[in-house]
Amino acid sequence: MIRDPAAFLRQLFDRAVEVADPMRSLARFLPEKPQGRLLVIGAGKASARMAEAVEAEWGPCEGLVITRYGYGRPCLGIEIVEAAHPVPDQSGVDATRRMLALLQGLGKDDTVLALISGGASALLCAPSEGMTLTEKQLVNAALLASGAPISAMNTVRKHLSRVKGGQLAAAAFPAKMLALMISDVPGDDPAFIGSGPTVGDATTPHDARAILERWSIPVPPSARVALTRSGVVPPGDPRLARTENVIYAAPAQSLAAAADLAAPLCDVRTLGDSLEGEARDVAREQAAKAIALAAGLNPGDKPILLLSGGELTVTRQGDGIGGPNAEFCLALAIALDGHPQIHALACDTDGVDGAAEVAGAVIGLDTLQTPGATEALARNDAHTWFARARSQVVTGPTLTNVNDFRAILILPPG
User: Fold this and answer.
1) Do residues 169 and 179 lie in contact, with contact meaning Cβ atoms separated by under 8 Å?
2) Nearby residues of 317 by Cβ (< 8 Å), 6 or more positions away
3) How many helices (H) and strands (E) does the chain have?
C-alpha cells in the first residue's frame, strides 16, 4: 500500500537520478588508460562528476572541464571551471578558448577523452566570428523564451559557434577521441546533446534561418551574417574519422529503474522517454488520460503509475519565474481540479527547471488550496506559485542530466 504518495513519487525520482550518476555508471565504458599523452576535456552540468568518475578509475589526468556554477567536483588533475547556464558568460568563453588551445598541436599518438552532457550548449561558448558575447547571450535568451524544441534551438546554436557541430572534435584531429555522453535530448541523437561538439552535423545555415523564422526568434544583425558562413563539420569529414561517440546514460534507463522500483506496488505504464511539446498542452493530455484511468479503478485495485520523459517547452508570454516541469505540474493540477485519486511529480533530473534552482514540483488533491493558480499559469510563474504552495522539489545539484522525469500516480477509490 502507498501511504504517502508524495514521498513515493519522490523516491521514484531519486532512483531515476541515482542510476544516471556518473560515479555509478561511467566506469564500465572506459577502456584501459591510453599510453602516451592523454587529455580529458568536457562540458555540461554532469561533466565535473564525469571527470571525477574518470579519475577514480584512471588516477590524475591532464585536462579541462566546464560545468555550471555550483556543479564543480574535486578532481586530482583535471581542472574544473564553473560558468553560467543557461545563458553563457565570460567565464565560459574564456574556458572554451583555453580548451581549444589545449587541443592545438596534438598528434596521432595522443588521445582525447571528451565528457559531454546537457548544458554544454551554453557552457562551451565560442561565438562565431563577428559576434560578441552580449549578442550571443541575447540569442540564447530569445531561443529559451521561444518555445522551440531543443533540437531546433541547438541547430541555431551550432551555426553561431566555433566549437559546436563537430568543431571541437575537428580541433583535436589527428588525435584519437572518445566522447562519452549523457543524453538529455528526446531521441538520444548525439548530434544534439550539448549541440554536438564532437559529432558531424548535417544541418545547414538555411535550416537555422528557417528555425528563426518559424519561431519568430529575434537575433542581432551579426547573427544573420554569421549564418552565411557557418563552420559546422559535416558527417564524413576526414577530421572526424578518429572520433568515437558513445551515449552511456540516457532517459530510458532512468525511467526503467523507476518502473522497476514501482512495479511491486503499481501497474506501471510508460508513455515514452522522448516526449516533446508545450508543457501545459502535454499536461492537459495526461490529465485527461489519468482521469479516464481513475474512473476505471475499483477499491482494492492496484494503483496505476504513468511515467514519461523527454523535454517539454514553454513559450514565454508572461513575466514570471517558471520552467517546463513546474508549468507542467501547475497546468496538470488545474486540469485535475483536486481529483482525489491522482498525485503527480515532474522534475528535471539535473535539479534545475528552467533557470530556477528548483528541480520541479509535486501535486496532490490539496494543491489547489493555494489561490492564484490560473493567474500564475498565465504569467509563466509556476515556480513562485509552488513556493507559496510549499510543493517545490529542491534537490540542489544532482551532478547528472537525463532530462525531465514525470510520474502520475492514480490510486483506486477509497
Assistant:
1) yes
2) 378, 380
3) 15, 12
- Give 229-273 as a DSSP string: S--PPPTT-GGGTTEEEEEEE-HHHHHHHHHHHHTTTSEEEE--S
Q: Which CATH number fits domain 5-16+252-410: 3.50.50.60, 3.40.1480.10, 1.20.120.530, 3.40.50.150?
A: 3.40.1480.10
Superfamily of the domain at 31-249: Glycerate kinase, MOFRL-like N-terminal domain (3.40.50.10180)
Say how far apart CA 279 and CA 384 lie, in whole Å. 17
- According to the model, what pLDDT value does residue 256 have? 98
Report H helices in 104-250.
120-123, 133-146, 150-159, 167-172, 205-214, 221-226
| Per-residue model confidence (pLDDT) at position 20 | 97
Amino acid at 322: G
% of residues, the chain, pLDDT over 90: 97
pTM beyond 0.90: yes
CB-based contact 48:80 (threshold 8 Å): yes
